[in-house]
Every structure is written in structure tokens, then in C-alpha cells.
Amino acid sequence: MEIGLAGLAPTKPAPALAMLRLLGGFQISQALYVAARARIADQLLEGPRPLHELAESSGLWPEPLARIIQALAVEEVFDYDAETEEVRLGRLGRTLASGVSDSVRNVALTWMETHYQPFGHLWQTAETGRPAADLALGMPFFDWLGQKPDRVETFTAAMTDFVKAIRQDAVNAVELDGAHTLVDIGGADGTVLVTLASRYPELHGVVFDLPHVVEAAPELLRAHQVDDRITTAGGDFFTEVPPGDCYLLSFVLHDWSDEKAGHILDRIHQAASVPDARLVLVETVLDRGDAPQIARLLDLTMLGMLTGRERSSAAWRELLAANGFRLDRIRPTAGPMCVIEATRTG
């Protein structure tokens, strides 16, 4: 057991001090944004470096950068030696580097550029029920996002990092035995379907997303040599989806209200090529799985940015039943997300 001052076991901070840490969370987020944008972690992957070199290569003033790094050192992002002014990666620092397997650098950049301003309107959301993003941006978030290709590219990269960090255990747990044609609704660049196609050599599939989003998928399919059995299609899942005997929605339905999610499920119900088509969802379930704090954080994100929500097992059962699907089982995984399996009925 770790021993604190005077041989005493460490105690939790007083409630007011713990609350002050929570209240200062927005400052830590902005400090992480600076570190990610300056690629500090990238520069430290090969070992510690003097602060002045980091500042010079980043185009930042040494004194402000030192204070930012020291604040983040408290959060185990960096280690800072005040005597030598040397900086090294802390326990969490590697995740801010680009190109590493567990990187969330794109999330650090994107959330501050897309989510930070809307969350300043959370009071108005509580007053009116409207998403804070609608109030801050003057339009629904996805409409605003689609106005500029660079926004779409940045957001897609961030979501790739984000979902890789929280859903990989669930994707690894997806079972597709007997499926012939899997349609990945909202499949973005095809990362998930590529993973599944490598595990199921006989599987055919379609990566389906908005036309400007799915443009990135063919290159990835070719790179992984699955383009002979995995194709792409662009469209609006509120209007029409491709036919298949199995449908995958990975982290999609939580973006939408029950009404909108119901429209998506209805389109799948209509398009299915067999009466008992399978439906596989990779989502959080508020009363199941590990890391419930992640699910609650995501629920707050949905409140501020979109019309969606994270759902309980009962809510998932009700939503599916109302739109022609029977909930078969919910399988918790080692991560914060679950695999929800359902079957088309009626």
C-alpha cells in the first residue's frame, strides 16, 4: 500500500478540492489541444528532449509551453524535470502522438475545434431541449460539418481514433457465422468491414455511408486486398440502404433520436434480402459492460451535439421491437461497448 506523509495512507482530496479539479477540466482539454497541435508527443516518441528544442520546433514560446507541460505532467501526460528542463512522455503521453496504435490525437484536435464552442451553450440546451450545437453553429452539427471537405476529413480521422479506442473489443467480439452479405451502415472508410472480412474469408459486404464520406473506403479495401468481395455505396440511410442478409451499425444509432433511429431501422427492414435478416449493433448499453463512465460521457456528448442518446438494455429492446426487430442478446465485452444482436421479424 502506498504511504503518504507521516506514514499515513493517502486520502481522497476534500470535496471542494475534488470539485475544483472537475471545474478546471476545460482548461486541461485546451492544454491537451495545444500539446496535440504542437505534436509534442510525436517529438518525444524516441526519448526525452529539452524544453527549448520542443518550443523552437513547435514555434511556441518556451515559458508558456513549460507551464502547459507541467500542468499536463500532473495528469501523467508528460514528465518534466525542472532542473534540466527535459521533457519525456508520461503514462498517457503516447496517446497524443500520431501514427501509434492507441492514438487519440485527432480527437484532441477535433473536439476542441468542433465540440468546445457548442458546449458553451449547454444551459440553453437544458432550457430548450435543443442540441447546443444547433444553437452555437446555427444548424444541425452534421449539416455544418458537411459544408467543408476539410471538416469532414478531420472529423472522420477523429472518429476513427475514437471508436478504435473504445470499440475494438466489441468489433473483435462480433460473430458473423452464416452471414453472406454484410452491409456496414455508416461504415465510413471501411475499417470495421476490412477487419471483419479478414476474419471471415467467405464474407461479402458493402461499406455504406454518405457519398463524400465513403470516398475514402476503396483505397483501404484495395490496400487490404478485399476489394474483390467488399464494395462501397454512397447514399442517405434515411432514404434507402443496400440489400443484404446481415446489417452492421457500429456506433451509429446512438447519434439519433428514437424517431430518427427508427427511420434507419425501417429502411433496413425494407431492404433486407431475407425475412430473418440479422442485425448487429456495436453500441454502449448503460446498464451493461465495463467503463460506464465512458457511456455517460458519450450521453452528455450526444446531448450537446446531436439529438441522440446512449440507451439502456430496456430502451434498446423497445426501439428494436417498435421497428420490426427482435432483440436476441446483448453481449458485454472487455471494453465499454457491447454487441447487440437482433433478428428481423414480421
TrEMBL record:
Residues 129-326 form the O-methyltransferase C-terminal domain. One of its GO terms (biological process) is methylation. Gene3D superfamilies: Vaccinia Virus protein VP39, Winged helix-like DNA-binding domain superfamily/Winged helix DNA-binding domain. SUPFAM superfamilies: S-adenosyl-L-methionine-dependent methyltransferases (SSF53335), Winged helix' DNA-binding domain (SSF46785). GO terms for molecular function: methyltransferase activity. Pfam families: Dimerisation (PF08100), Methyltransf_2 (PF00891). This is Methyltransferase.
